[in-house]
Amino acid sequence: MDAMNSDLKGKSILITGASTGIGAAAARAFAEAGCRVAIHYNASVNRAEEVAADVRFAGGEAFLVGGDFTSSAKAREVVKGAAEHLGGLDILINNAGGVQVADVDDAFFDSVMDLNVRSLVAASSAAVPYMRRAGHGNIINVTSIAARHGGGNGAVLYASAKGFVSTFTRGLAKEVVKDGIRVNAVSPGVITTPFHERYSTPAMLESFKATIPMGRLGTAEECVGAFLFLASDSLSGYVTGQIIEVNGGQYMP
After folding, report:
1. Residues 6 or more apart from 50 whose CB is under 8 A from it?
2. How far is CA 222 from CA 22, 187, 189, 196, 206, in A?
3. How confident is the model at residue 104 (pLDDT cuts 50, 70, 90)?
4. Nearest CA among 140, 204, 147 for reference residue 172
5. How far apart, in whole angstroms, are the C-alpha atoms of residue 47 and residue 89?
6. What is each CA distance from 161 to 11, 117, 200, in whole angstroms?
7. Is 183 helix (H, G, I), strand (E, B) or coil?
8. Residue 41 and residue 48 in contact, taking contact as beta carbons nearer than 8 Å
9. 5-19, 80-94, 167-181, 187-201: which has the minimum mean pLDDT?
10. Residues 6+ apart with CB under 8 A from 36
11. Phi, psi of 94 (to 5 degrees)
12. Tell me: the pLDDT tens digits for 13-70?
């Protein structure tokens, strides 16, 4: 733990979708490791301010940056704003994403892909030049167990979008490794976050729990260790193009 803390101390990091859930837990954990944290939010500014207060209490530097990630242009602006404020960008965690429940028409398809795919690609492409100039960097994407098994009923487009994220992670890792940049992903299973509070009924969550060998749902805090590991060059310097599954044994590739 001490090696990881010294490795991450002073690093600049942007976490997208960091006002709640896994992103918020990651922001608090990286602050405890001594990072300077840019906290991205869309509508939940009050929650983002609460996370920023926690980051500062932990001794970290917090910077709030808002933007709707259904717009790839806005995603690029968020990365630029964070990098300019922090004087560069060492780590990017692409956590923003979600699923909308609606009939599948062109507008619905575009909304799911804009939020989960286009914004992630745009944020990554905007971050790479900063990392390339520094000669190092880490991009950590957030995919999902849904990318492995197709998702729950009505979530096929979300699952497909996360499948893109997993493949993009592997491909981008090959393209930027020569620049000293590592690209990996964390794949959460069923985690108790506002995402499932919004999209999953209690009955659905109980059915999910029955398929998990550990017999319970995970917490956002139980995901942060994977992020810290992948962000630390001293702990994972020879790891790139990999996806870490955090799902209580629900899926074992």
Report:
1. none
2. 9, 12, 11, 16, 19
3. low
4. 140
5. 24
6. 30, 6, 19
7. strand
8. yes
9. 187-201
10. 10, 11, 12, 13, 60, 61, 63, 86
11. -85, 90
12. 999 999 999 999 999 999 999 999 999 999 899 999 999 999 999 888 999 999 999 8
pLDDT tens digit string along 106-135?
Answer: 888 898 999 999 999 999 999 999 999 999
CB atoms within 10 A of CB 233: 19
Note the pLDDT of residue 196.
Answer: 63
Note whether 142 and 94 are within 8 A (CB): yes
Q: What is the pTM of this model?
A: 0.89
Which of the four pLDDT bands, split at 50, 70 and 90, describes residue 99?
Answer: low
Token representation of residue 38: 């840019």
Mean pLDDT of 189-214: 82
Which are the catalytic amino acids? 158
CB 188 within 8 A of CB 151: no
pLDDT tens, position by position, 75-94:
999 999 999 999 999 999 99
> What does the alpha-carbon distance between residue 135 and residue 209 come to, in Å, rounded to a whole number?
43
Domains by residue range for the chain, with CATH? 2-189+223-244 (3.40.50.720)
DSSP string, 81-109: HHHHHHTS-SEEEE-------S---HHHH
The single-letter code of the amino acid at 136 is H
Phi-psi region of 126 (alpha: psi -120 to 50; beta: other; left: phi over 0): alpha
8 Å CB contact between 195 and 144: no
